[in-house]
Amino acid sequence: MSLVDEPGVGDPRLRSLYEDIAAAGLRPLWTITEQLLTPTPRPRAVPWLWRSAVLRPLAERAIRLVPVERGGERRVLSLANPGLGGRPYAAGTLWGALQCLGPNETAPAHRHTPGAIRFVIEGEGVWTTVDGDACDMRPGDLILTPGGAWHDHANGGDGSMFWFDGLDLPMVEALDAVFFEPHPELRQPVTGPHNRSEAAWAGAGGEGGDAARTMTPGAVTRALDPAPSPLLVYRWAQTDALLSRLAAAGEGPLVSVEFTNPHSGASVLPTLSCGMHRVLPGGASAPVRRSGNTVFVVFRGAGSSVVDGCRFDWTAGDMFVVPSWSAVEHFSDGGADLFGLGDAPVLRALGLYREETLPRRQEVTGVFGEGTAA
Ligand code: GTQ
Ligand code: FE2
């Protein structure tokens, strides 16, 4: 509301008070209280979906036309939520993006304070080197590049690769704590064999290991660990196996695991939580809302999610955002696997996390992309 519309501003003394307050670089709280202290979160980001059918051809055109070089650093298409006024963020707290690398390309080594995760969508042949440890990437794998760690991506194969990037960049930016540094070399040296963190933590869940310490059914509620997970790769085979076990144990219609720091039991990065959610065939999850933003990446299958009454129909490779405190429920006829990235560790650490299950299913009042809704 503009001050000139305020009741009583017809009074010249009041008008000049407001003018003098503004000229002094002050704002009268009583005119903006309701905008600021909202009964529930009012994220500027809106529920939104980016389709693989749109993302993927654009990424392929970029592979043909745009080299990956120093300065630009990465071939990345960031999800720009239309509620955020052109800022390149999926939600107020989360960066989400599609990254791609063609055959024999290298995305140069650098490091930065924002932490990142990669969830592999398609292709093979790329490894991400994290502080000297080359982590091979395959579809369904989760790879961590914690804040401060040197990282570069190298494609040693003969095909293109596509993965989802999630970063806490908007949070680190809000804290005015972004630092970035290029590595002196294009590729940092790889010290020893590939996948060393996986070998070191094999008993905790590396290839053939026991998933118990690397994944938690439901969501991690352990206290914040300011250190990132020492395990840098979480393999799809194990995620899949644990989800299948939970489904077989009758935990459906939605079974979820959160990836865990095997050292502390906390989330994978201090700022970011990563989980995998399986909607069983014919399943519908309970309607819930949570404080904190979530970005979902559809890994396998097709289905829909109803977010604040709008139905989002999705298929493999699609990405969508559920903003803070939006009601969400997922459905799939044939079954589907959704990767989820969230800021919950930060909310939990600060005592801001809230979650509630709604008493009944949402009424669908629109379909995303079909005129009325969104
Ligand atoms: O791969 O290092 O999507 O630094 C954004 C910033 C990816 C990366 C992003 C990055 C990277
Ligand atoms: Fe990076």
From TrEMBL:
* UniProt keyword Cell division, yes or no: no
Sequence ranges assigned to domain Cupin type-2 in this UniProt record: 98-164
**Protein name from the UniProt record:** Cupin domain-containing protein
Q: Where is this region: Disordered?
A: 187-210
Give the UniProt keywords, A-Z.
Answer: Dioxygenase, Oxidoreductase
Q: Which domain of life is it from?
A: Bacteria
Q: Which InterPro entries match?
A: Cupin_2 (IPR013096), GDO-like (IPR047183), RmlC-like_jellyroll (IPR014710), RmlC_Cupin_sf (IPR011051)
Carries keyword Oxidoreductase?
yes
Species name: Streptomyces johnsoniae
